[in-house]
Design a protein that fits this description.
about 0% strand, 15 helices, mainly alpha, binds protoporphyrin IX containing FE, 2 domains
């Protein structure tokens, strides 16, 4: 695939136009077909724009970890063009913003009665508050305005926040609401996989650093199998959310102390991410578990 993946037409700005031109044309065609006199009609355009955005977001989110786990010409191509997948995502989200403003302006009642939830608005606005500087600092003029450290912090927290938004929307769609469609499942599982690749890449890098003085003392080697068991429990919980979503509501909501975060704090109380926390603990154990093979290698070095 190498000679093909090196082609100018599918790298850099040509790739950006290859994705964003049909995407924008599709949006314009959808506008001509949608019933713009109703909130539902505009909402369907919001849905369409986001469904084009999510795969681009996931591609940018998994690029580096996919390449560090499965180094190939294809993963190198994705990593080489991560910036352009990110900019295509930003463009698709710009379309969503146009449709949101349209809905608020032209179907205010629909927005107020059918869509508006204060915490959702806070979550959504924060999404754009990180997305806009991420897009601007992708360009030289924007990057010059912040330090390298600030750039890394913005892009790392920003992409995690945006991934979390999409992932949590689809978690609720398939495990809580009663009418999920195929795309809801597809975007939930690919969102979980994208995060899983990052966790696996972290675990692999951590294991490779075991024995290096900078990595600190490793855990007992039984931490490995224990970590696997813990991660499997997390994967089980991430696969069968319907089984625990109701009981978790009774446990996690309704305390005087949590009234404010319930009303304002994005993603509180983090139900979609609780299984990932368990998987993360599993990775932490696996990543830090002592390993005779590593130990002997290190001592040999
Ligand atoms: C103020 C900001 C935002 C508002 C008002 C807003 C509004 C909406 C509305 C009304 C829908 C429902 C469309 C429908 O199903 O008919 C929707 C869906 C969605 N939005 Fe947003 N949104 C905002 C920000 C964001 C951000 C930052 C993301 C980040 C990725 C995002 C991701 C999604 C996703 C994944 C869906 C589900 C689409 C589907 O059904 O597949 N939204 N949004």
């Amino acid at each position: 695939m190498k000679p093909y993946l090196k082609k100018k037409s599918i790298n850099g700005w040509p790739l950006f136009w290859l994705i964003s031109a049909p995407l924008s044309t599709g949006m314009i065609v959808a506008i001509t077909k949608a019933d713009l006199s109703t909130g539902e009609g505009i909402s369907s355009l919001i849905q369409l724009s986001v469904r084009c955005a999510v795969p681009l977001l996931y591609t940018a989110f998994l690029a580096s970890s996919a390449h560090s786990l499965f180094s190939s010409d294809f993963t190198a191509w994705i990593l080489r063009n991560r910036k352009y997948f990110g900019l295509c995502f930003a463009l698709a989200m710009a379309w969503q913003a146009v449709f949101i403003i349209w809905m608020v302006g032209a179907s205010t009642n629909y927005y107020a009665n059918e869509v508006f939830v204060l915490r959702d608005l806070i979550e959504g606005l924060l999404g754009y508050i990180v997305l806009v500087p991420m897009a601007l600092t992708t360009f030289k003029f924007g990057r010059r305005l912040i330090t390298r450290k600030q750039w890394r912090l913005l892009h790392k927290t920003g992409i995690y926040y945006l991934w979390a938004y999409a992932f949590s929307v689809y978690w609720w769609e398939i495990f809580y609401y009663r009418d999920p469609v195929f795309l809801d499942y597809a975007f939930y599982w690919t969102g979980l996989l994208a995060w899983g690749l990052r966790a696996a890449a972290w675990t692999k890098a951590r294991r490779n650093s075991i024995g290096n003085s900078s990595a600190g003392a490793p855990l007992h080697r039984l931490a490995g199998p224990l970590g696997l068991a813990v991660a499997s429990i997390g994967i089980g919980a991430a696969s069968f959310g319907s089984a625990w979503v109701q009981p978790s509501q009774e446990i996690l909501y309704g305390y005087a102390l949590t009234r404010i975060p319930e009303a304002f704090f994005p993603y509180w109380p983090f139900e979609p991410f609780l299984p990932l926390l368990v998987i993360g603990v599993g990775c932490l154990l696996i990543g830090n578990a002592d390993d005779w093979k590593n130990r002997t290698n290190a001592s040999r070095v």
